[in-house]
Give the backbone structure.
Amino acid sequence: MSEAPSGLELPADRPRPPVASFRGATRALRLSAAVTASLRQAAERERASLDVLLLAGLAALLARYSGAEDLVIGVAGLLPVRIQWTGDPPFLQLVALADGALRAALAADGALRPALPNAEPGHDPACGLPLQVLFAGPDEGAARPP
């Protein structure tokens, strides 16, 4: 992941500590059965998994808050998935980009080796692992290619 960004500038209520503490928060969201069914149908129409659709949604949300067009999101444990784009692509294009990025990450690193701190030259120790965000989707095993 040469030249991948090591940090994600999101609005915060306090400055980032000089060294990562790993005391971040987890946010779980329960969707109604009707919303989940609609999302699954949308994923099927795009020939993507529900996890890929939600990964694209997370990328869109993070981009909106940070202005970033290059994101590294950890999935399937700590597998780094890099999603890049320019401008303001339609959401369905982000779904295709997320799907392609996930498949490329799996192909490049099928062993799912752990991402280690300071693995990349110039890695900022305030950011901890060389991932910007971790994503855990609802579908078990959806991070595996079909």
User: Anything to note?
Assistant: Confidence is low (pLDDT under 50) at residues 111-121, 140-146. The CA atoms of residues 95 and 119 lie 28 Å apart.
